Amino acid sequence: MKKILYIVALLLFFVLAYMVYDFVQFSSERNKAVQTKGLETTLNLRKQVNDILTKIAKEGDRLALLFGSNDYTPSEIEKIIKESALSIQEIQGVTACYEPNAFSPSKRLYCPYYDKGSRSYIQVEDSYDYTVIGKGTAWYTGVRDNGAKWVEPYFAKAAQDWYVDYGIPFHYNSGPNKGKIRGTITMSFVCSGFNELVHNMSLGKTGFGVITSTGGTFLAHPTDEYIGTTHIDTIIQREKDTNLAAAFEHISKGETGTTTFSDIKTSEKVLFFFDKIPISDWGVGLLFYKKDLLGDASELNHRYIKISLILSAFFLILLAIYFNKDFLDKREIWILSLLASTLLVINIVLIAYLQHNTIKPHPKNESPPITSMATLNSFIKEQHNRAEELKIPKSRAVPTGIYVQRMEFEDSYNLNVGGTIWQKYPSDLAEKVKIGFTLPQISPFAEASYIEESYRKEIAPKEGEMGYLLVGWDFRVTLRLDFQYSNFPLDKRHISIEILPLDNNDHLSFTPDLMSYNYTNPSKKSGLNKKIKISGSEVLESYFNYSIESYDANFGYNSKEMFEKVPVLHYNVQLRRMLLNAFVTYLIPIAVVLLMLFFLINTTTKSEESQGIIESMAAFAFVLVFSHIDMRKEIVTADLIYIEFFYFATYLLIVWTTFNLLTYSKAKGSIFDYYDNLISKALFFPIFYTLILIVTLVKFY
Q1: Which letter does DSSP use for residue 525 in this model?
Q2: For the residues of 653-686, what is the DSSP string, one character each?
Q3: Which has the higher per-residue pLDDT, 421 or 222?
Q4: Exposed (0-12), middle (13-18) or buried (19+): which is 130, by Cβ within 10 Å?
């Protein structure tokens, strides 16, 4: 017997060693993938910004050569700077400014600026004297005095916005003033453009990015108020997280690299990549949460569980070898019972913890979260390609946003939601389509459904952007949602609010209005009132995504293609249960019954009357049954719930204990007479936890 135990222990040791090796290798590969993904994103952002700045600098150099070689009339100058501004999508405008009397002896200052946003010209000299050295004139005087440069961000008084410019002087190329500065060309970029560029990068669910000027002022930051106004050193001094402050210091020093640390609020691993833009020496920093880059954690969780199970079995075998003798005394039997129960509980808790803290992958018929314009544009392009293949009209995008003010569960499947939904209809489309939306999940039995228009405003077009009709609605509705409760209380409730056009014949595609939110990372819970509290649940994340639906009817239209593979916009909220409430409500009755059963099996003697045993067991069974019924009343579902198996296991123990005690009190047998039914007593909790472990593995592994 001892040889067999040694062989089994040796086999388990080798299996355990292999599993640990496989785990280390797998973790190493995942970490490398995380580093690669984060670095690629950082390099991609650096390249995009550098390419834009290079393009702007080249255009500025071209204009400086033109203006230095030619005398232009005001109309010619306006035409040149307008064409230049329109040729580069990323810039906001172009300015051609002359030194005093350099444009015309009769005109002291001349400085036209073409603003793409308003599609108009602004005469800067009408607002202030840009040639006087001061805080708001560095865009001109700094370039005039020091040569071509990227100017520190400044607030443009004429345009009323924060700008960062590339300025280059142009000189007289002939005449008595040859070689002297005649003026400057300024290529203007609104700082919000950099924020949008970072916003469009894939930063995972919770990451963010920053860009700083050569002097350390923020050009892009998730907090808009910092742009143009705040120096990175100020943030370093204010930052409570010393690790994050140290990461910002790397940017401030113009360094390149990566640092890893734990977030002081969430204790999650963070990767911070820092770099600089070659053409301008601007700083770049991108922060990622490691869990976002790792993706699906199911394979890693499986490895944790395997190692835990094998390690538990190996430990029990070693214990069996240590206790290997013909007879075990009482103390050794109880030690084995206690250790076996402890190991079983540890494995159950581990699996439950992994299940509770892991967010499931998105369903196959749904897209990943739409968190950036790049992701959204890619989805829209796919829909346009589909329309071309089916030879149906391409759908027009209608940006749609939602802000949920209130949310509470009415029962297991009905959710009361209230808030605001807004939409931006292109001006050329607003008169041709039905304005509004439908929420197909509204409960047919809702006592009240309130959706009413609350505001409407025409937004004027800007250069490169169409005008649109902004319409907002207040809503209070009850939604009937298809929640799954089979994993209760370790389940995640996925609230998905579908928003559809009123008429498919309008060929509209509702798209998330990402630009109306400060954050689009799911963990920032965009679109949710921060004061929302849902009893017994914790809000994990919120995000937009799409599902592709096909209908089995054409709803009276002649075209079936109109209702095949239709994109449906979803606003999603992920909830995780707070386990304390479920444990107190449902597990305490089970624990009490188990303890009473355990006390009964330990106090019953040979002379015990069978009638008393049966009455005691019946009382325990009734307590448990009533608790079970209450649970099924509260959670109405056709599925078997995970926590129900705790009841089923307890029912089995009641039956087994009843049989055991009746047999022990009346019959004679070596298994029951051994130390007064000690084996049954010692096996009581290990049997229960083994049943629960088996159920937990079947449900969640």
Answers
A1: -
A2: HHHHHHHHHHHHHH---HHHHTTTTHHHHHHHHH
A3: 421
A4: buried
Round to whole Å and give the CA distance between 334 and 330.
Answer: 6
Return the closest-CA partner of residue 316 out of 10, 9, 18. 9
The number of C-alpha atoms within 13 Å of 6 and in the hemisphere containing its C-beta is 3
CA–CA distance, 221 with 228 (Å, rounded to integer):
10
Are 45 and 201 spatial neighbours (Cβ–Cβ below 8 Å)?
yes
Token look-up 């640390």 returns: 261
What's the predicted TM-score (pTM) here?
0.74
DSSP state of 107: B
Long-range contacts of the stretch 104-112 (C-beta < 8 A, 24+): 110/74, 111/140, 112/74, 112/77, 112/78, 112/81
pLDDT band at 610 (very low <50, low <70, confident <90, very high): low
* β-pairing verdict for 508-512 and 396-409: parallel
What the block records as the tokens of 168 is: 């280059």
The identity of residue 100, as a single letter, is: P
Q: Is 425 exposed, middle or buried (0-12, 13-18, 19+ CB in 10 A)?
A: buried
The rounded distance, in Å, linking the Cα atoms of 121 and 460 is: 17
Strand ranges in 213-311 using DSSP code E only, listed in sequence order? 218-220, 257-262, 269-276, 283-289
Q: What is the mean pLDDT of the chain?
A: 86
Tell me how far CA of residue 346 lies from CA of 487, 488, 596, 617, in angstroms. Answer: 19, 20, 23, 29
Sequence-distant contacts of 673-676: CB under 8 A, at least 24 apart: 675/330, 675/333
Tens digits of residue pLDDT in 303-323: 999 999 999 999 988 888 887
Q: How far apart are CA 336 and CA 595, in angstroms?
A: 19
pLDDT in tens, 349-372: 999 999 998 877 666 667 888 877
Range in 446-460, 552-566, 613-627, 630-644 the model is least confident about: 552-566
Q: Is 76 exposed, middle or buried (0-12, 13-18, 19+ CB in 10 A)?
A: exposed
Burial profile 522-535: b = 16 or more Cβ within 10 angstroms, e = fewer: bbbbbbbeeeeebe
Structure tokens at 645: 């198996």
Q: Report the 10 Å Cβ neighbour count for 14.
A: 9
The token pair that represents 338 in the structure block: 């206690």
Cα–Cα distance, 608 to 629 (Å, whole number):
32
Neighbour tally for 441: CB within 10 Å:
19
List, as one string, the DSSP characters of 39-86.
HHHHHHHHHHHHHHHHHHHHHHHHHHHHHHH----HHHHHHHHHHHHH
Report whether 520 contacts 536 (CB < 8 A): no
